[in-house]
Amino acid sequence: MHVTGLSHSEAGYPVESAYEHSKLIHRLFEKIRRRTKELFDCEVINEDAKIKIVSYGSVSRSAKLITENDKKVGLIRLKTLHPIDEEMIGSLIQDSYVLVPEMNMGQMFYDIKRIGLEYGAKEVKLYSKIGGDPIYPHEIVEAIRPWL
Amino acid sequence: MVVKREDFFRFERWPHMFCPGCGLGTIMNALYFAVSELDLDLDKLVMVGGIGCTGRIPGYLNIDSMHVTHGRAIPVAIGLKLANPELEVIVIGGDGDIAGIGGNHLIHAARRNVDIKVIQVTNFNYALTGGQLAPTTPPGAITTTTPFGNQEYFFDTAELVAAAGANWVARYSTHDPKGLIAGFKKMLTHRGFVFVEVLSQCPVQFGRRNRMRNPTEVLEWLKSRTTYDKKKLNELKEKLGEPVFLLGEIINRNRKPIP
What we know:
The complex is a heterodimer. By secondary structure, chain A is of the alpha/beta class.
């Protein structure tokens, strides 16, 4: 058996052919895409709330503290970032105000915004914090205050 | 000759990608003779290669093989050995892969004395990507990134690995295939971290830019600058200047290997 990281044919050996490379990439991509429902996982709190926070990782723990105290704020905690079940996220954020707090310049935000535009979210906003400090619950509360 | 040539090579993959006049054919053949004369079980033999011309060798041999990212062949080999200690794991890579990009993995694997074998094929440049400067390029040599000659000193990888704590270190050259076969046979019988540097000709990327367009000219160059005799090395150095190489066994220890 030969294992390689190069683009390979069905036999498993490296090939230098644009056709074989395209076939391989499409196969690998489709493998993930077809199993989106199976692979995607997320936790939803306060599903009926009109304000929703979409977050992942440590930021979602700050967001969770808010949802415990206030039933008007919902949380979609993403456990999988790729692939994203767009139908599921879309139906959850339909007609709601969405905040995406992230400790970067907005990487998941643009995906969520695109889904929001497609499925009719009222507004999708980014709260970004740079510097490595965690996002505290009071900062998220400040960001969603205009919608409360 | 117990292992048949047809069993050792994946002839269905021929023609291979190596340039005409390349030294890798000699090395592949020498490895075949060593494995065949020792009558090793091909099912227990695993080869790992990184990126580069030399890293493609495992794909042409009919044994279980892996072709991994640049410089990371040794970490993968260590993983293989730890998961399945009864396998004989051989890493093969070029000077750019083993000494350049994967240099730190090399010295720490030697320090820990992991029970794997590493073959470094030194062709004095990064050949697959177009003949750039490598850590082993001799001073004054012309490469695509040093058009006015290399201004830096080069790595003596065999001495480096010996100093790092490997069990057995040796250096051979493709101008002496008989010595190479004997070297590979010794390599396959030693335990612990075993390192073999094989000086090889690259007429297309290295020789062409250094007035050695013909493979035999590079081999003559290698022959004139190498010796098996430690006493003659200084004499050779005074006569020809750098680089000169001592061939044969460089260090032979008996430290306890892991796993």
